């Protein structure tokens, strides 16, 4: 049976961000949804469901990064997928003050939404800068080719994505995830902090946890080979 991998990127990311990961799985079929026409938070999941129509879920590995990981959780809770990989993701992005070690204040997302129509490039550049760990910035690792230059996301999609991050809460779904699950998380991630990944691995039954020491949020771009090897070692 042919293996299918559904790849779900993070907020504002081009599907090109998966290029170096895909190269490590030459015998697999890939599905990568197009979010360019999304204009409401609930449309993201609708796009994914449309993309997998006719696909045997039992042969599909779902790989979600960041926002894509939240969408992947919802899909895995509804379909009998063969496996789930969550990269730099979280069950709930917006957190209370007491949980600030696991997420962001909603005020930050509101400010980004206000600035986007006037200063899209600045908002995206600032977000990309936060994706990198201090070590990665010292190495001058560039992510701009996967955001400012290649991103297919419209302004409406970017705004809808921020609304999705503000509203979505997958925590009630975690105990119902029955497929094998791998959580990959950078120890220096400040977008979805490490405790958010640890929370996922603790609350999803039987989940495996793979910390990427010294890495930030952009693991599919900064560490594609290490991410691929972690998936292969777990998936078989």
UniProtKB/TrEMBL annotation:
Keyword Nucleus listed: no
InterPro entries linked to this entry: AB_hydrolase_1, AB_hydrolase_fold, AB_hydrolase_sf
Alphabetic keyword roster: Hydrolase
Domain of life: Bacteria
Chain ranges of the AB hydrolase-1 domain: 5-229
Protein name per UniProt: Transporter
Organism: Brevibacillus reuszeri
């Amino acid at each position: 049976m042919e293996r299918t991998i559904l790849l779900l990127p993070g907020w504002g990311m081009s599907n090109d961000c998966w290029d170096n990961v895909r190269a490590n799985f030459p015998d697999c079929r890939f599905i990568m949804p197009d979010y360019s026409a999304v204009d409401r938070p609930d449309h993201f999941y609708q796009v994914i469901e449309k993309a997998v129509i006719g696909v045997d879920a039992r042969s599909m590995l779902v790989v979600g990064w960041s926002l894509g990981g939240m969408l992947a959780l919802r899909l895995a809770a509804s379909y009998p997928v063969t496996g789930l990989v969550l990269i730099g993701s979280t069950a709930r992005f917006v957190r209370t003050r007491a949980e600030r070690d696991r997420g962001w204040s909603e005020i930050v997302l509101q400010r980004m939404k206000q600035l986007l129509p006037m200063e899209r490039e600045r908002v995206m550049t600032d977000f990309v800068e936060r994706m990198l760990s201090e070590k990665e910035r010292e190495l001058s690792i560039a992510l701009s080719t996967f955001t400012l230059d290649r991103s297919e996301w419209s302004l409406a999609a970017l705004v809808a994505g921020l609304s999705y991050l503000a509203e979505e809460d997958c925590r009630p779904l975690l105990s119902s995830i029955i497929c094998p699950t791998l959580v990959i998380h950078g120890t220096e991630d400040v977008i979805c902090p490490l405790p958010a990944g640890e929370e996922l691995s603790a609350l999803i039954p039987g989940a495996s946890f793979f910390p990427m020491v010294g890495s930030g949020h952009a693991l599919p771009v900064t560490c594609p080979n290490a991410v691929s090897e972690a998936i292969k070692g777990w998936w078989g």
